[in-house]
Amino acid sequence: MKSLTRNKGHRTHSFFLSKKNIVLATGGLLVVSFGLRKILGYDPLNVALLLLSTLLAGYPIVRKAVGALRYGIVGIETLVTIAVLGALLIGEYWEGAVVTFLFVLGNYLESRTIEKTRSTIRALLDLAPKTARVLRDGVESCVKASEVVQNDLVVLKAGEKIPADGTVTEGSSFVNQATITGEPVAVSRKAGDLVFAGTILESGYLILKADRVSEDTTFARILHMVEEAQDKKARTQRVLEKFSRFYTPAILLLSLTLYLLGHDLVLALTLLVIACPGALVISAPISLVAGIGNGAKNGVLVKGGDVLEKLGRVRAFAFDKTGTLTKGSPQVVAIRGYALEAADLLRLAAVGESYSEHPLAKAILQYAAGENCKTQEKPEGSLFIAGQGIKFNLGEKTYLMGNRRLFAEHGVDLTICEDYLVAEEEKARTAVLVGDSQKLLGVLSISDVVRDEAKELIADLRNQGVRRLVMLTGDNARSAKAMSMELGLDGYYAELLPEHKVSFLREMQKKYGRTAMVGDGVNDTPALASADLGIAVGAAGSEIAMETADVVLVSSDLRKLSYAVGLSRATVRNMTQNIVFALLVAASLLAGVLGKVVNLSFGMLVHEISVLVVVLNAVRLLGWKKKTAFSRNLALNPEKIEKELSPERPMIVPPGPSGPIT
């Protein structure tokens, strides 16, 4: 991981000395020279010591300047090199030595401090497991973590790190998943549960089957994602870099003009030194790296500085329902038969959903298993109709399972159950209709539990000034309305297909400005990709969500979204503080030079201090925590909510050609 290790050891190529040793050597030479200067003045020995100090400290500066010039870049090192050479030419040996010393000292302190902004990411690297105990052909052996292959059985004991993503086959344990989710509380894991590489067993033992290994693990993808994020520049950063490309040559031209007009070489050289835009150039990237590091530590993966800068300026959020605002674990809560007994209806529904991966299908199959409603029958000719349901054959009959849209298209009359459907939908339940090609046989009511923290999140985002909070769902309008009122949302859009979600996001972007889509990445990938920002919730095990979304909340805790918004705003504030400070220092030094009250060495000292202050200010972001607690007692106005959710506000999209129900 190149970007994480380029400063390791703080080494340079100046006579094979590290930055630290250069600082110590040149600092010692300057102290000795200063003493000799008081005693002997500028005698040959003193001049030799100053030249040696300048050579030691100046070599890496000149080397970088030459390297930049090869690519047509006039950087800070070029300005310092010209200023130091000019000082030596006019006999200002002390000034030349002090300027180079202060530059390398500032560079060393800056690199040491910048390492702190990367410490969170480096800590993640250190948590990567090194070895693994695998069971192959009945023999247990210890191998490198990188040598674990898919389907290996991995044996784990308390205190050990998990080397691969996998499924527990035996044992039970409490696993600390802080490296993945940012949550310090250990979670219970037993046979059938999923565990992640890089997490730690706190107790018990586990045997797991490796599903994802090496670079394919969630932990490895997180590290790769964070590493890439460091190199993605924010708009402010790009503007500053573009400004510096024109600013540095302009300073060279201004210095030359001052010299030609006033023949004051010292003034021109001093201007070169103090006008270095060092603090300004790093003011944005150093804050962004610190903000990204903070997010990674707390289970919020932000894909680049541009995303982090945008997140705090989002004006509207659209939420998927199932798996995002709800826990994504729907359960069958009621069965009503019309032409079949409840047990027979459940058995038929279980047969029809045998091959489906939809969350509602899983709920039906799970409930049927719990009721001992087992059958060896399998459907034939199953046809999954996106946005409607499923059509299948059993025996000599054709059956339908799905929503109103499916039965309407097949001409099945639902009058007999209309009142019941309305009552169930008003309870925020999803009604799965079961029938044949002539009549309705029964209804299974399925309910998904709203996340405990969902209402708190909505209230907190509203307190943070977000203009619009809506829900996009494929569920029926009554269920959507009931949940919207419960959560205090501004509106809802129901019975949507995936392409409809994309259309409504575009409308929201036009009306409210920057809009973010929040989903679980299961069936809302198009919406995540089309929004200004796509935010995936609980995406630790979803490769598609982690690739598609701009922000990944690794755990399923929705409060992480509020944390991410707060972190973005804190980062932008920190970045603004750095930029304003850097500009003020540059303006003050420029005025001091033109007023001839700032000399060469003092100007360099102030410049390096300003760089260090900018870096230290950015480091504060590493310890940033959301200060305000969630608004648990927010008084919601029912009349206002009812007005917001009146029939004039929600938009019910007519049946579309395709797309799954959410």
Which key phrases capture this entry?
Calcium-transporting ATPase, cytoplasmic domain N, 662 residues, disordered C terminus, eight-stranded mixed sheet, elongated, disordered N terminus, alpha+beta, Calcium-transporting ATPase, cytoplasmic transduction domain A, 19% strand
Fold and architecture overview:
By secondary structure, the protein is α+β, with helices and mostly antiparallel strands. Among the domains are: 117 residues; 84 residues, Calcium-transporting ATPase, cytoplasmic transduction domain A (Distorted Sandwich), CATH 2.70.150.10; 117 residues, 3-Layer(aba) Sandwich (Calcium-transporting ATPase, cytoplasmic domain N), CATH 3.40.1110.10. Helix content is 51%, strand content 19%. Strands 3, 4, 5, 6, 7, 8, 9 and 10 form an 8-stranded antiparallel β-sheet that branches. Helix 8 runs antiparallel to helix 11 and helix 10 runs parallel beside helix 24. It is elongated, with a radius of gyration of 32 Å. The protein starts with a helix and ends in a 10-residue tail after the last strand.
Strand content is 15-25%
Query: Which ranges are low-confidence, i.e. pLDDT below 50, for 5 or more consecutive residues?
Result: 1-13, 628-662
Class per helix and strand makeup: alpha+beta
Question: End-to-end distance, in Å?
Answer: 39 Å
Give the helix tally. 25
Instruction: Please summarize the sheet with the most strands.
Output: 8 strands, antiparallel
* Rg (C-alpha, Å): 32 Å
User: What's the total count of β strands?
Assistant: 24
On the 0 to 100 scale, the average pLDDT is 78
Q: What proportion of the residues is helical, as a percent range?
A: 40-55%
Tertiary shape: elongated
